[in-house]
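>> Question from a student workshop board

For tomorrow's exercise we were told to take the sequence and the ligand below, predict the bound structure, and bring the output to class. My setup keeps failing. Could a helper post the expected result so I can at least see what it should look like? The ligand is zinc ion.
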Amino acid sequence: MTNENKVLIFDTTLRDGEQSPGVALNVEEKLEIARALERMNVDIIEAGFPASSPGDLESVTAIAKEIREPVIAGLARAVGGDVDACWEAVKHAERPRIHVFLSTSDIHIMHQLEKDKERVLEMAREMVARAKAYCEDVEFSPMDATRSVPEYLYRMLTEVIDAGATTVNIPDTVGYAMPDEFAQSLRDIQENVPNIDKARLSVHCHNDLGLAVANSVAAIKVGARQIEVCVNGIGERAGNASLEEIVMAIKTRPDFFELTTNVDSRQIHRVSRLVSQLTGMSIQPNKAIVGINAFRHQSGIHQHGVTKMRETYEIIDPQEIGLPKGTNLVLNKNSGRHGLKARLDDLGYEITSAELDHVFVAFKELADKKGEIDDRDLDALVSGERRAIEDIYKLEVLQVSCGNQGEPSATVKVIGPEGQVKETTSTGTGPVDAAYQALNSIVGVPNQLIEYSVNSVTEGIDAQGEVTVRIEAGGRTFVGRAADTDIVVASAKALLNALNRAIAQSPQGKTEEAWANP
Ligand code: KIV
Ligand code: ZN
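>> Workshop helper replied:
Here is what the output should look like for this input. Compare the format with yours to find the bug.
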C-alpha cells in the first residue's frame, strides 16, 4: 500500500487552515490558493467541508472542477447528509477523496456525541461504506485519537479499514501528545490493527503545545506516510503542523529520514506569502523557514561566516524555498511597466494585463511618495489592487481633522455601485473612528468591528502601513486589507474593502435592506 520512501503531503490550509479564528476566504481566493498548492505539487488538497456551508460546497466544487493534479478531498462528519454533500462536491475531481471523521475519545463520545460506544463504531463503519460506494479513495479520522482508549481505537481502525478506508489518519486534535509517546502509539497501532497494511497511515497534529511538527516528524520515523499540514502552520487555535517546516526538514536531513516528498520547495516562499496575504494572518518574523528573519544574520561573527561560506550558519540555501537571489531587489519611480512586470513575474505573480494597469498606477503613486519599492511593498500593492478591483464602493476622498484639541472629524466621499457620489462628515474618538462612522453611514451595512491591526510593510518613516480589519456582518466574518503611506487612508480603505466583501457575499448582493431581511 505504502511507497516506503515517499511521504505524501496532505494540505488542509483550505479546510483546517480556514478554521483559524477570523479567517474568511471567498471562492476566488480559495481557488487561487488551490492553484498555488497544485503548482507546489502537494499530493492531496483538502478543499473544504462541503456540508458545513453553501459557500464551502461551492468552493470545493469549484476546486474539484479546476484542479487536476492533486487528489481533492472533502471533509464529512459520519452522517449520511455530509457524505452525500461531500461527494456532490468532490465528484468532479480527477482524483476525488471523501474524508470521514468521528470522535473516538471517551470525553468526546460522552459529552459531544452523547452516544453509546458500540453505536459510534457502527456509524463509522456505515459511513465509510457509504463513502466507498461513491469513491474508491476514502480516508477515516478517529477524532481526538490521542486521548482515546487504545483498544477502542484499534477496533475502530480495524473496522473502518474492513469497510473500505484506504487512509487512516491519527489526529492529535487538541495538540496533547508528546513526540515519543505519539511515536509509540503509532507503533502500537501498527502492531494491534491486524489489517493496517491495507491502509496508508497518516497523522494530523495540532500545535497547542508547540509540538505539531515534532509529533509529525516522530510519526514519519515510525512509518506514517501521509502528513496533514497547513501553509504557515495556520489552523484551529494554535494551528496545525506547518507544511514548510515538515517539507524542509525532510529535504534538509536526508541522512536522518531517507525519505522524500513530491513538493517543489522553491514554491514555498511564494505560497506562504500568498496565504498570509489572503487570510490576513501575518507571519511571525522568527517563524522557521518563512519568517522575514529566517535567513537574516545579525551578529558580526555570523555575517562574516556566511559571507565566507554560506553553510557556516545557514542549513538551507534560501533559493531552495524560492527566495530570489539577491533578495529584495529594489524598484523606484524611474522603473517602467516592464521592470515592474518582470519583478512581479520573478515573485511568482500571475497578473492579468488589467491588474497590471492598476498595479502600475499604484506603484507610480507609491514610488513618488516613498522612493524605493521592495518586494514587500509589491506584495502589499498587488494584494491591495486585486482586492480593490472588485470593490463596489470606492474611496474617492478622505479628509480628517484631529489632534489634542477639539473633536476629531472625517469627511469621506465614496463612489457607489452605479457611479453615484456619496459624501458625509462624521466625528469620532479619533480620525480612524471618525472615518469609520462616516463610511458606515454611507454604505449602510450593519456590522461590528471585531479586529483592527496595523503593521509597517517595510522599515523606515516613509513605510506603508498595512491595515487589516475583521468585521462581523449578517453572522459572518469579513476581512478587509489595505496599505498606504498614510495609515488613516489605509484604515478607511481596509474597512471599505471588508464592507464591499460583505455586500458581494450578502444573499442579494444588496445593502441595508438585504441585511435586515435575510
Ligand atoms: O483536528 C482534527 O481532529 C481534525 C479532523 C477533522 C481530522 O481536523
Ligand atoms: Zn484539525
